[in-house]
Amino acid sequence: MNAVSALEGALTGEPQREGYVGPSSAAAFMNLIRRAVDPSSPSSLQMPPNRPKADMTTVSLNAPEALPPREIADNLISLYWNYAHPVNPYLNKARFDRIYRNIWTGQPIVNHPHPLMRITEQDSVAMVYLMFALGSQYYSDWGKNGITQANKFYSVARTLLNQHMLQVEDQSLQRVQVMLLMTQYLNGVSKAHKAWSVLGTAIRVCQHLGLHLPQASSACNLRNPVDRELVRRVWYGCLVSERLMCMILGRLPMVPATCAHAVPLPQEVDEDAFQSDMLSEALLEQYTIEAKRAGSTTMISFFILSAELSDIVQDMLFAFCADESKNEETLSYDSFFVGPNSVFEIDHRLRKWGAKVPVSLRIDQQSTPKSTESKATEIFRRQAVVLRLRYLQAKIYQLRPVLAKVVTSHRLLHRRGATIATEGSLINDLSYRTGLQCCLICVKASIELIEISKNHLTTAEAWGVKPLWLVGVLHIYLAATVLLAARLAPAITLGEVDDFAIDYAWQQGLSVLREFQYDNASAQRCVAALEILYRKHPGNRENSERSQTMKAVVHDGEHQQNYLATLQAAEQVASDTLDNETEFPKDTNRWLMDFDLSDPYDMSWFDVAPDLDPFIDQANFVTASANWWATH
Fold it and tell me: Other CB atoms closer than 10 Å to residue 526's CB: what's the count?
């Protein structure tokens, strides 16, 4: 049967099958007129009813030829559930296991009776291949071929999805789940712009299905509690992903806060019961009451906290991205500290959010990993790391505009040839002094973000297995630019963070990026950009003299010895960089041409990052990667 459009349904009264249509639409107006003429006529704008079908359809599942051997496939799926799923819990394991099993046996699977929850062959197979791709990040047996294998799996899924992505009659919750998995993979390999496009389509499909409405996940529409929780997880998964990406790309969210908050958050339920697909209404109520009474942590607690943090991030995005006046060259700081969503209000909300984080998800409460610890403890530790990193990312994003304002205020005074009286009035200005405190907190947050990334994301001991690619390349880059700005204007640290701590954190950040640069072209570009900025920027021209002074001072402890070693390495790398700039990707040099590195007050590089699509220069990247693996 052909789909009936909303306008046709409004005219004829026949139920339309093209998704949710809002009350302000032309179809809604026509429907209102028709019902005024004939009150007995049904509304064509209602959401599809939850009517079980007596003869439920089945879906045949046929896998492409690229299916890996069964043992490897099982390992990849297991790695996905252990590492990727706890951070992005969009799927139900029991339902997926039925799909996965039938792909291998070739048996059809019984479809879901509700239109919103239906499955298709293309989406089911694409879901499996994307889980293969995400599991490949933690599959160490492939070594240098891991990223290539992951990209092959992704390509299969992309081909399947491209063939049916825009078919209106096939849109379902499963389609959105597939797009979220694709977004997760693209973000992981730093294809931020492609991830943005896929995620935008996923959000539009959600709105087409009505997932942004509370009735979509109500008991009246979905009788099964697992169905309702899945709808809420998928919707908030879209919101959290979008807001995190908006921080990376400096864009505004497409979903307004009023619409986002209409849907209830997922409930604190026992994850084992949820994943077994055996969550009854009675059990749901029991688990919810127990969780609220005991204040205990469940596997979904991390996701709920991430969703609440993303609400604060959304307000930050509208406060700092939409208001261009904050970037004007003036000495006034009122736009940061006065009015709604000010720095003070955002800080208050972040502190209230931080107070809600349970002990199990606090990184400072985590013990050293042990071989005998439970699976739940391992998952909570990894969730605690990611949650802290997301908080620090939000904190840095909140305060970076203030830091840039302080530095540009110095530039403005410099260009105007400020008198001592003018500089004195700025120093005595309360908003300026408050801005300096914000800069200090931003620098400290950047140092902590780099330290956590170094200690928890790059070793098998801390994470359980060393990832093949690094998630969060750009966040480390942005944190490093904060440290570079702190070196440019030492006054912003108020003497509480010395050059020693800043240089050490800088080298840690570069160390993390270098460790993954031959498996991630985005990390390669960030390393190139940071090293050139470090060497060429006038604020760092005296590095050699400063290092000689540091060497003349007697330091005690291994930390200081490591600092001197990394500082010497930095000088050597920077020198090599200056002599061999043509070896860096061509787009990195083009990026640097936009800035005046001879002007110590030119901060235009502070708000811009190198292009982070790792396959723009595929040939050069593959050659560099092959050469590195051949010598290691």
Answer: 30
